[in-house]
Amino acid sequence: MIAVLMLGAAACSSSSADERGFPPGLPDRIFPFTQYGRSLSLTVEDVRIKDQAYYRDLNGTTYVVKPSAPGGKIVTVLMHVRNASAGKTLIDINEEAFSLRDLTDKEYKPINPFANPVLAPNVPKNDPPLDVMWGPNEFPQGFGIIAWAMFDLPKDTVPMEIRWGAVDIIFARFQNKPAA
C-alpha cells in the first residue's frame, strides 16, 4: 500500500532568488537527471526552496509544514524512483530511506508528514497540490513512484544532493549547467 499525500508549495518571498528559490550567484541546475543503482533508478525532476509547504491527506484535510527555525526554508524535491531491474522491490519510504545533503555535506532527513500534522487555516489558491512520497511500497520491475519529498533546512543552506539508501545506494548530485 502506498501512502500519497497532497502538497502545495508556498511561493518563496525572496525576490533575489531564482524561480526555484536558489540564492543568486549559483550556476543553474538542469532538471530532470537520472542516476542508477544496481536495481533502482532515481530521477530528480525538480527542486524548489519555499517558505512553507501545504499538503492534503487522502481525506482532503489540508496541513501546513513550516521551517523549524526562523528564516529557514522547506525544500521540496520531485523524484521518480523506479524498479529498473529486480523482479519485485519492496521499499519503505521513510526518514531512513533517503536524505538531502548541502554544500558542506551536512545531512537532512525528509519530513514525515504524519509525525506532527498542523492544520492549515488558509491555503493559497495559486499553489497546485503535489503528491508526496511516504510509506511502504511494492514495485514490480519497470514500475515506481513519482512524488515530492519535503526537507526542513536552516537559513542560507543550499541543497546539493539526494542520497538514496533504501534497497539500493544512489547519489544524485544536482547537475549544474556548463559555464557559457
Task: Describe, in plain words, how this protein is organized in 3D.
With 180 residues, the chain is mostly beta strands. It has one domain: Sandwich (Immunoglobulin-like). The protein is built from no helices and 13 strands. The strands form three sheets. The protein has a five-stranded antiparallel β-sheet, with no helix packed on it. The chain is globular, with a radius of gyration of 16 Å. The termini are far apart. Residues 1-15 have low confidence and may be disordered.
> What are the low-pLDDT stretches, counting only 5+ consecutive residues below 50?
1-15
CATH first level: Mainly Beta
Q: Determine Rg (CA atoms, Å).
A: 16 Å
- State the major sheet: 5 strands, antiparallel
Strand order of the largest sheet: 5-4-1-10-7
> What portion of the residues fall into strands of 2 or more residues?
over 45%
Overall pLDDT score: 83
CATH architecture: Sandwich
Which outline best applies?
Answer: globular
Please state the structural category.
mainly beta
Tell me the number of strands: 13
Helix content: under 10%
CATH topology group: Immunoglobulin-like
Give the topology string: H per helix, E per strand: EEEEEEEEEEEEE
Number of domains: 1
State the distance separating the first and last CA atoms.
47 Å
Number of helices: 0
